[in-house]
Automatic annotation (TrEMBL):
Pfam families: Transferase (PF02458). One of its GO terms (molecular function) is acyltransferase activity. This is Protein ECERIFERUM 26-like. It comes from Prunus yedoensis var. nudiflora. Belongs to the plant acyltransferase family.
């Protein structure tokens, strides 16, 4: 069976400025209540038609995400427990994962079938 989705490239986007070493943020009461409500985001864009180099289409998106992460470094942090066994987010400049993929068919076809 042919692949429906082909991964073109995988990249890690990091902040344009490093985070203060060892910086951590304790989770608030609201954070702890929202544990099971996290956000996964998929952005769909129409094909530009002509073949491109891997990562060429997502270049601007990567650049703007890197600038955004500079203002919100907590997004790139990792969950850890502190010495009191409480959850916290430790900032480590690990970045966020970004994938560029190509799918067979069109977004309109997919929405008709599954939307």
């Amino acid at each position: 069976m042919a692949e429906i989705i082909t991964i073109i490239c995988k990249r890690t986007v990091v902040s344009t400025k490093p985070v203060q070493a060892g910086k951590s943020y304790p989770l608030s009461v609201l954070d702890r209540h929202m544990e099971h409500n996290h956000v996964r985001m998929v952005l769909y864009y129409p094909s530009m038609g002509a073949p491109t180099e891997p990562g060429e289409i997502t270049g601007r998106l990567r650049e703007s995400l890197a600038v955004t992460l500079t203002h919100f470094p907590i997004v790139t942090g990792r969950l850890q427990k502190n010495d009191n066994d409480q959850w916290m987010i430790k900032c480590n400049d690990a970045g966020v994962r970004m994938l560029e993929a190509k799918a067979k068919g069109s977004l309109e076809e997919w929405l008709r079938k599954f939307g």
